[in-house]
Amino acid sequence: MTQQISPANFADWTGAQLARTEAALGQWVGPGAPAGLGQAMRYAVQGGGKRLRPLLVLAAREAVAGEGAEDTALAAALDEAALRAACAVELIHAYSLVHDDMPCMDNDVLRRGKPTVHVQFGEAGALLAGDALQALAFELLTPEHSAIPEAVQAALCRQLARAAGAAGMAGGQAIDLASVGQQLDEAQLQRMHQLKTGALLQASVMMGAACQGGAAGAAALAGLSRYGAALGLAFQVVDDILDVTQDSATLGKTAGKDAAHAKPTYVSLLGLTGARQCAQNLHRDALEGLAACGLGNTARLAALADMVLLRSN
Amino acid sequence: MTQQISPANFADWTGAQLARTEAALGQWVGPGAPAGLGQAMRYAVQGGGKRLRPLLVLAAREAVAGEGAEDTALAAALDEAALRAACAVELIHAYSLVHDDMPCMDNDVLRRGKPTVHVQFGEAGALLAGDALQALAFELLTPEHSAIPEAVQAALCRQLARAAGAAGMAGGQAIDLASVGQQLDEAQLQRMHQLKTGALLQASVMMGAACQGGAAGAAALAGLSRYGAALGLAFQVVDDILDVTQDSATLGKTAGKDAAHAKPTYVSLLGLTGARQCAQNLHRDALEGLAACGLGNTARLAALADMVLLRSN
User: Fold this and answer.
1) Local confidence band at B216 (pLDDT 50, 70, 90 cut-offs)
2) pLDDT of residue B72 exceeding 70
3) Contacts of B263 in chain A (CB under 8 A)
4) Which long-range contacts (CB under 8 A, 24 or more apart) does A217-223 make?
5) What number of CA atoms fall less than 13 Å from residue A132's CA on the CB side?
6) pLDDT in the model for residue B5
7) Among A199, A278, B127, B255, which residue's CB has the most CB atoms within a 10 Å radius?
8) Is A1 a residue whose pLDDT tops 60?
């Protein structure tokens, strides 16, 4: 049976985690960059969305660490590793949005209710800001003279690089690009989204677990992996639903753009009712993955799955 | 006194190192990527230039390892680490060229004698190929189930991320972008090139040393760092000289484009004679750095410095 957490407790936890994530991003993004570039990087990251990926990292780490982690130097270092991983996945997500919005890709002018980065800083500025954000993600994961075990640093880089690259997010975007105006079946659509959105969401979960080194056994990792895969896909199905049911103001980005670009979606493929059913099946699959983990502290991950299913933007 | 290597020996060594680097790039770049993306990534990397950065990694590793490294499992793993590092720095270099050539940046159509990636694969294809190449660089440095010590993996990621990011290559490109049509003094021009070109060249040297773990002492690292910094800057000064003295066919890229873009260069600042003197001073500084290393196997690094000074493309 899935563990429960009260909405008030979850809101408290979420608020605290978001506060430390925002503070860390504010501290780590921008310094050391030439003025214009640092400004564009901060703009791309600030005021940004739900921070679902950082929350997944932090909740997954807590699930593996268990309640009441020891107050040791190592525990503090692993906690710092989780915060760095949370920021790193968010930087990869942020850079992908910057590049995705550019005229040669989706040519979008509105994101999170603000002008997109290339509108604000020019195309070359957006290109470089995205490039620098990707590099910064890996820099955050490998601090020098740190108590974070080097095995943890290497594992985090490994997982993030795979999820961001050609067999992950960038690969999914390439398939997306090639599929405009094409007829995809559900398996092809699923493959595209598993790479484009799912890989980084799933990696967020697995990176949270990796922050605890080898603490998670094979069964726990398998359960978390299933949770992450189902949640990642559910996120995209809900995205497709919101694209046709919400207006731009609620979304904070241009609504209806999938149809405008003749992009295949879960709604165009399964209809609205079918897409909603699909999202619910994936939500159930995510919770079953959690239940199979055998971990004692998964209530926040379950609440995050609810959040993905029930979100309105 | 600087060690010497005969031209024939150096050519043999270079040929062997290039052969294994090309083979490794051929094996590692492309597989796992969706068809179109993998093709664009390979195109960006293939047939590519002097491979100066990989040669610096491999020569620096040999300088620290010494002649006749032991035939142990660890030595083999460190050798593999050097090959992975050599490919990783080349991927970062290749991705930077792909993005730099795009219409919103330098808008260049010729590179290494071939149409640039965006001409061949479209702008969106070039954008994604560059993004995926950057991620792949970090993936190559962190293989799973490998005998490469995790401390070496983490150190390589750390150095590459810093050199590629906002305080390195991407930062230098941002300064370059902001400086078009501006009057820069020599200190400002140097700062721009230290970041834009120098950081990755210097990192190539230091990553080669890092492949040997803690084998290099502080004096050796300081000497290598000085060598790398001087060589990195010399490379750019020579680039500026070649841009006005060679034709496009010899360069394999569009000649005279700095002047066409009203970009400040060492030649525009110091004149051709002054720029040549500057390159020679930097070359001497690089060799002095090597001499200060106290390492017994630096002849190849010295020969690479000669190559940078005497190159014609």
Assistant:
1) confident
2) yes
3) none
4) A217/A294, A219/A292, A219/A293, A219/A294, A220/A64, A220/A293, A220/A294, A220/A295, A222/A292, A223/A289, A223/A290, A223/A291, A223/A292, A223/A293, A223/A294, A223/A295
5) 35
6) 83
7) B127
8) no
Residue B32 CB burial class (10 angstroms; 0-12, 13-18, ≥19): middle
Domains of chain A: 7-310 (1.10.600.10)
Q: Which of residues 21-40 of B touch A (CB under 8 A)?
A: 30, 32-34, 36-38
Most distant CA atoms of chain B, gap in Å: 56
The answer, yes or no, to whether residue A225 has pLDDT greater than 80, is yes
Give me the interface pTM, i.e. the ipTM.
Answer: 0.95
Alpha carbon A247 to chain centroid, angstroms: 23
Q: Phi and psi of A253, rounded to 5°? A: -150, 170
A114 forms beta bridges with A111
φ, ψ of residue B230 to 5 degrees: the values are: -65, -45
Q: Do A173 and B99 touch (CB under 8 A)?
A: no
B36 contacts in chain A (CB < 8 Å) = 174, 178
- The CA distance from A157 to the nearest CA of chain B, in Å, is 7
* Distance of alpha carbon A241 from alpha carbon B274, whole angstroms: 64
Could you tell me the two tokens for B167? 């305080």
What distances in angstroms separate CA B73 from CA B70, B78, B141, one per listed residue?
Answer: 9, 9, 18
The DSSP symbol for A197 reads: I
Q: How far is CA A300 from CA A9, A13, A68, A305, in A?
A: 9, 9, 15, 9
Query: Apex CA B136: angle with CA B132 and CA B137, to 5°?
Result: 120
What pLDDT, in 10s, does the model give residues B73-130?
899 999 999 999 999 999 999 999 999 999 999 999 998 889 999 999 999 999 999 9
Scan for tokens 């293989």, then name that residue: B143
3-state class of B115 per DSSP? Answer: strand
Q: Is the pLDDT of residue B66 over 90?
A: no
What residue type is assigned to position B50 of the chain? Answer: K
Which band of pLDDT confidence, cut at 50, 70 and 90, is reported for residue B261? low
